[in-house]
Structures
1.
Amino acid sequence: MTLTKFEALPNCETAKFVTALSLAANGVAIVTTDGDAGRSGLTVSSMVSVCAEPPLMLACVNSDNIFCELADVNQAFAINLLAQSQQDISNTFAGFGEDPDADRFLSGSWVKRTTGSPILEHALVSLDCALLEATTHGTHRIYIGRVLSVASNDTQPLVYSRRGYAHIS
Ligand SMILES: Cc1cc2nc3c(=O)[nH]c(=O)nc-3n(C[C@H](O)[C@H](O)[C@H](O)COP(=O)(O)O)c2cc1C
């Protein structure tokens, strides 16, 4: 990664960066993939819409996660934004369960829509995406997807802030 003319300037300390951003409030989603390479899913807070025309979504996943290997082959992923009542699903897909080898998809009710990526029933918003671009920066891989279908439930979102779940009313 080149920073051109800013190369010689002081760098932002990692700890300061991480602590500062822990103050932000983010939605929580389960990003999933399924296809020829196999099925995987993990909890993320680093997802955002890129633009509406065409409808594009972005999610960042640690390159070490098996999700990356599978999504790159499957060429598809889904982003399932969680409702406030789905905190347990967030914990399961973050690996906080008692048995880390247990099938995470036993938590929640999952269906397939357009690409075959797992879609969570009763999610706040679910977006089924065809992979448009994947690129790696630092420790993470950035996935940009073209949204092929969207569904939503008008309920409260699950929010993560200050290293914990936050409730909004
Ligand atoms: C609220 C929350 C948000 C997270 N956001 C991300 C994220 O944006 N990207 C990421 O790679 N991991 C994120 N993680 C961590 C992953 O969920 C976790 O490392 C992963 O599920 C570990 O799974 P593994 O056992 O499949 O490696 C987040 C975890 C939590 C609890």
2.
Amino acid sequence: MPWLSQDVIALAVRNLHDAAILAGGSVTPKPDTLMSFNFEVSSQTVGGKRYLVRLQKSCVSSLTTTLRSLISCGCPGYTISLAKSGADEVCKHCGAVLLCCLKTHRRPSPLSLPIPQPRPIIAQGRAPLALTDAQPSKPGPEPAAGAAVPSSVFTDYDSKGEEAAELLKGGGRLLSVLSAKQAQRMAVYLLSKAVAHATLSAFTFDLLMVTEALNEAAARGVAVKLLVDGKHSLGGTTAMQMDRLDLLRDHGVEVYLTQGVSSTGIQHSKSLLVDRYFMIGSTNWTNSSRNNHELSVLIELADEGAIAVETRLQYMKQGGKLLTKAQVTSSQALREERKSRPKSVEPKSDRYATAKRFSIARSRSLNRV
Ligand SMILES: [Zn+2]
């Protein structure tokens, strides 16, 4: 299923969290019928209801139709409430089956499905090497007999409390702690290995080497997205930002202008997701960030971690608008106009009035001693 990605799943599955739990052992392949691959998904409720999920065999070629016409479930959620909504959304049982299919992409499983292939390579040249192939995971050393299990600081954590974070059991593995220069170079490396998708989030952006690496990935057929702060991109102080975004847009990168949690907030995260590798920290995608002490981390995501990151990026993208050519033009004109403005502004006559008054009062009080 070349079209199947974490993006597709995150967009279409109503309850991704539950789907991920069900994918962890509640899906059982059943014999195929003429038109479909069949799966039984046991529900989380105490009664242990089982639902049959049918995946049309035509799904192996391409997603030319709605997702709901390819996969269906007998549960009330799928057949009643989601059907009413009219959106192309599926239930958690379908989500669990899709996640299992996605997993076979990484690790062959007993599921009777063909292993999905990465997106087709458009440009000529060597096929990008999947990092997963280059770095086979080795089993770690066995713990010494009688080794104490480290007690977790989170045993008392109130996961239902206000602003509680969701704690993952197996989110992934920390691969590196990076400085600004290392992080930016790593971004270029990871993008050169991207197979299926890459998403970069930025507040400030002017780095040419990352721009080119994103464009090259897009040219190979990787789905490349950029989530940038709308206001800063259109009229902020990073001089080259719109020129870079324009270049990305021209190369088929989807550039989304986003905002913060509310309209007064900003998109301030600086992250890069390349397939299963996630780099995040304080490093900006700018030249000036290279002079700073920045701190970024690179994580190899496990399934649970990948879903958590995808879900968060999806949330950040919501309400974002694709950058248009008209916006590029007007933003570049605005920045040109600013450049031609005189640098120094006549100081106001009373500019130092408060400071003067303060220093006069201070010298008087000192003289009095
Ligand atoms: Zn269902």
